[in-house]
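Figure S4 source data
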Amino acid sequence: MIHMLYFDPGLGAMIIQAIVAAIAGVVLFSKNLMFKIKSFLGIAKPENDVFDDIDIKDSDIESKPHSDNKQ
């Protein structure tokens, strides 16, 4: 008895999507894992925070006139 399998385009697309998702998951997981290992060993590059360069004091915020207070 011979069983013939039928793959329609929807099933083929689903199989391709599952393969791509699995590869992306492995890449992202391994990237995160390697960063944790490198940071534990002290090899990782320090992350630059974009907002560290900005110095805003509370007095600067309070002294600016607000556009809400139009007279």
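Figure S5 source data
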Amino acid sequence: MSSSFQAPKGVSEYVPPRADLFYAIREAFAEQARLAGYGYLELAVFEDTNLFRRGVGESTDVVSKEMYTFEDRGGRSLTLRPEFTATVLRSVLENNLHKQGALPVKVWTSGPAFRAERPQQGRYRQFYQLDLEAIGSEDPQVDAETIAIAANWYRSLGLTRVRLLLNSLGCRECRPAYRALLQDFLRRLDLDEATRARIEINPLRVLDDKRPRVREQLAGAPLMADHLCAACKDHHDRVRGLLADLGIGWEDTPTLVRGLDYYTRTTYEFDHPMLGAQSGIGGGGRYDGLSEDIGGPPLPGIGFGLGLDRTVLALEAEGAAFAAKPRCEVFGVPLGDAAERAMFALVAELRGAGVAADMAFGGKRLKGAMKDADRSGARYAVILGERDISDGVAQVKDLTEGEQTAVPLADITPTLKERLSR
């Protein structure tokens, strides 16, 4: 009988074997980050609510509609993190990482984030992200580096349908004039009251509206790309040139603004067309004013958040060849009390040698234990009975080919390591 309790609605959970894929793609990202010199952070899951109000933006849907906010026993307003960048920057500033060496500070983290959204495929209330940030440099090479890390990760997973959408949102010098121009255009459209209110607070976010009726009216909207100052245009051209040097393709997407207020200059999104409405599988951009917004010193930065949930869905949609490392490579089948003790020691020896090994427990007979071996996904079974112990051997069975050979007990570990390496 199963429990009467269920996971809360909209929570994304993973159990084997799907969880093995989830873990493996996270580890593949960790390797990409390590190769590029990014250190790992383990961060708080909840923060002072004002961090997100000031950092993410009061006008965003994230802050105005989607945050899980609660009051603790001391009367403080706390919020489960809806995204990572503000939390990462808070930690960097609080721990003075920007004062401890050459800039940029290069860090990454991962874990769950929380938004009170209507659950659907690829959109959850508890979801998982990989986050990477480079804080303290305006160099376009840093922009290109972050994009390349994500692109290389997707490529390493075997995904072939990922598209990179790229834009520039200008800076605090050139964006005000464009903002006023966009507001003049938007005020003339037939829009609902909520969207009209957004025009006055953050008109760029209207460009992110996905409703067909609104998108039709936005066809002639002025674009930031046509109003960049000379410095922003040069920055954007250099980012694109660096991506071209690395062989990373992109699509110029002048209406791309993303959903958070802190973005400036380089803004990008990774899109997977096989995922339908929730096709954005990751994205990021530059946030050169965010440090000041949360009370810190002027400190430019750029980073991204990649959706682990949607990446799993993309791998499944493509049928990509990427596979998790097997949880079990060798499965022990002991027959009898003496064999159980000897097998227990042998399994420990195999694990110590770096071989994923498991065994049948509970004194099972041969037939039941071999069923366990098949279910484990192991390539080899090691069968050990009383007579085998007397002879100083064990029977090694290839569970794919069906071949079985006797191997001296002293040679089991090196023999299996050699066979598994083929």
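The longest strand covers residues 105-114. The mean pLDDT is 93.
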